[in-house]
Amino acid sequence: MTWLIWRQHRTEVGVLGLLVGLFGIALLVLGTQAHDLFPGGPARCAGQAAVDAACAASFRLLDEDYGYVENLLAAFYLVPVVVGAFLGAPLLARELEDGTWQLAWTQAVPRMRWLAAKLVALAGVTVALTGTFTAVLTWFRQPFDAWEGRFQYDAFDLEGLVPVAYALFAFAVATAAGAILRRSLPAFGVAFGAFLAARMSVALVARPAYATPLTAMQPVPVGGTNARTGPGVADWMIERGYADATGHRLSSTEYHELQDAADRAGTNLNQFLHARGVQEFGVYHPADRFWTFQLIEAALFVAVAAVLIGVVVWRVRRRMI
Amino acid sequence: MTATGIALRTDGVGKRYRKGWALRDCTLTLPAGGVTALVGPNGAGKTTLLRLVVGLLTPSTGTVEVLGHDVTASTPQTLSRVGFLAQDHPLYKRFTVAEMLRFGRACNLRFDQKLAERRLARLGIPLDRRAGALSGGQQAQVALALALAKRPDLLVLDEPVASLDPLARHEFLQVLMGAVAEGGVSILFSSHVVHELERVCDHLVVLNHGRVTLTGDIDTLLAEHRLLVGPRTATDVDRADTVVQAVHSDRHTTLLVRDRALPTAPGWQAQPVALEDLVLAYLRHPCGPDAATTPEVPA
């Protein structure tokens, strides 16, 4: 079976391995240079951008020289779906469209063993490729994470555990769609669409609700809003705004009324707000929830993947194919 | 050959898809060592029956026993005793012929690689050619060589020659019959080509609209049936229950009867029936002799 799986899927594995390898090497080269900007290691400068002059200089250089790379990293949002769907879509669909399922399942290897071997091998390749690439990318982003935190979408979605879970999800969707649609290309398309829809809705709607966010309140400072004592840059800010002295959150209309009142009174807005006891509030998840959130999101995607693989196994077992 | 002497036994087998029944109430017994033709029009349920026999599908009702084992279990042992050649003889198109043989070796308990290589060499099929680059006839031969290298006790073929040109068809059947002559393998194949059957097979199953309408040893079936030609008549009352088909011309009536050669009525002449005509008669009358007694068929 090992030889057969390798022979059947070596093209996909080879192409994906080559792509992951090329991008990985490019990231390693650029990442080494970026890391060299931080003599004491990037982790030492975490949260020190405004405090430590050496760190501030390092961050400025990082932004000037490698800021463009960070913007390009957004393309790697698609790595999990390309890897997972490319390996999952043909698993059953190619056999079904070529009629070779009838060949494969009438040899002496029972179909459930055939399916188990294929699923384990190709899911394993999916995990290995995405995992390796994510490890490199996570390392590459260390200086950027020290600067901006890891909770923003361009960090959280590319690092740690979740990319591997996304890839397994894409693999499972593609395999299941291939079993039902019996064609590789539509299965790949379905996986791609499902991946985008699931990723977006989870990141925008579900992720902020993995835990109860914290709320920080402080009076509007007289000198303006720059002196931060509330949530730091590494925390994940979900909502910010103003509340009155009793803690009641002001709607934007109410806030504009206050602005108008300050204008009419001819006073500075900050002084006006401060005098009335208006507070700034921030709703946020603290940075140390990173791994908890990673685990929750990874578990979510892996669970859906497991259900979909269950459907595939059930269909093959019941000979609905 | 098995100790029981029975290659295949189906009992009340039915298969229902979402659209309805593809096969109903199919009860068959095929002796080991024989060549059986499964004949029926397109959509009669031939492919469904064959897939049930090799365990690719599970029956909705009834049981399928191959060589004394329930095929739905699909253990390596039962799978290795049955060879299957699906319609259009699918192969992994990007594999070379040698890789197809390696596939066979990797996926089977026993696989006679030498035998397969010998067969392919005799046919002049190069081992280093990609399967997809071979002609249709050669692909069919590779698929057959793969199936035979398993040394199966039962070989099932779905429309094996339907897509082949006459020459390739001839060569294919020659190889197949050679394998039968070597002994030890029972063959069940489907076809909608009715002629040539007599030369090739010794057992017949006619399938129509998902039901078996005729099954038996070909010599016995030919002996049981005959054509009766007589004056034009509305019906042959005495024999209504044995008439399979009645054809009326201006002056004559020709009846195909299954009466096991009872004495002929006065004025009627008996003739033997050709296998092709027999099959065609059963294909036209989907429910067999019992329902075919309405004799008012216009000429």
UniProtKB/TrEMBL annotation, chain A:
Keywords: Membrane, Transmembrane, Transmembrane helix. The chain crosses the membrane at residues 12-30, 72-93, 114-140, 160-181, 188-210, 291-314. The keyword Transmembrane helix applies. One of its GO terms (molecular function) is ABC-type transporter activity. One of its GO terms (cellular component) is plasma membrane. This is Transporter. It comes from Micromonospora wenchangensis.
From TrEMBL, chain B:
Pfam families: ABC_tran (PF00005). One of its GO terms (molecular function) is ATP binding. InterPro entries: AAA+_ATPase, ABC_transporter-like_ATP-bd, ABC_Transporter_VariousFunc, P-loop_NTPase. It comes from the Bacteria. It comes from Micromonospora wenchangensis. Keywords: ATP-binding, Nucleotide-binding, Transport. Residues 8-234 form the ABC transporter domain. Coiled coil: none annotated. This is ABC transporter ATP-binding protein.
